[in-house]
Amino acid sequence: MTLNKIDIPYGNFEKVFLHICCAPDATYPFLYLRGRHYRVTGFFYNPNIHPLSEYEKRLEEVVRFSRVVHMDLEVGKYDKDSWMERIKSTENEPEGGKRCYICYKMRLEETVRIAKENGFDYFTTTLSISPHKNIKWIFDIGEQLGNKYGVKFIKADFKKRNGFKSSIILSKYYKMYRQNYCGCVFSKVKK
């Protein structure tokens, strides 16, 4: 599915599997998609988040948000060893470099794989709400994986039309924990 900015057509209650990186970033995309008449199921899959206490804190916030807004939620396996193996040799890359591309791809591939297994019509990600993420990489990876697995990727830049600003306002409204680094140990060290 090719979209201009965030112009998502109405979904007629088609099913979307939404990859969620954290609760604050899920607020606007979830509410936007639901408002466009999609049946949204969240998917928290982030083996990149370190340390474990940070992962648990973010997961707890996503679970709390899902209960408040009545969103179905799936939680992927926390397998930091697989993530570390995948990003091996990119530890010294700058934030936003090759390591991030590998990380986006790993998380989106698991998202689309599960979406396919469970009969979802579409998949997308909250990663696009961040002004710090490479939207071109996200769109390219999403489209490639969508074609590979036969599940349509919703190419939505959720930060557009004040989406990022709205996520900040909604995070405050829901009294959410908002982290100060992307998630991996390398993004925390290089802050």
Find the CATH topology.
Answer: Rossmann fold
Number of domains: 1
CATH-derived architecture: 3-Layer(aba) Sandwich
Rg over CA atoms, rounded to whole Å, is 15 Å
Q: Helical proportion?
A: 40-55%
CATH C-level class:
Alpha Beta
Number of helices: 7
- Element pattern in H and E: EHEHEHHEHEHH
Question: Kindly state the mean pLDDT as a whole number?
Answer: 91
Instruction: Give the number of DSSP strands.
Output: 5
How large is the share of residues in beta strands? 5-15%
Low-pLDDT residue spans? none
Class inferred from helices and paired strands: alpha/beta
Task: Report the major sheet.
Answer: 5 strands, parallel
Assigned CATH superfamily: HUPs
Strand line-up in the sheet with most strands: 3-2-1-4-5
End-to-end C-alpha gap: 35 Å
Question: Any overview of this molecule?
Answer:
With 191 residues, this protein is an alpha/beta fold. It has a single domain, classed as Rossmann fold, CATH 3.40.50. The chain contains 7 helices and 5 strands. Strands 3-2-1-4-5 form a 5-stranded parallel β-sheet, sandwiched between helices. Helix 1 links the parallel strand 1 and strand 2. Helix 1 packs across helix 6. It is globular. The mean pLDDT is 91.
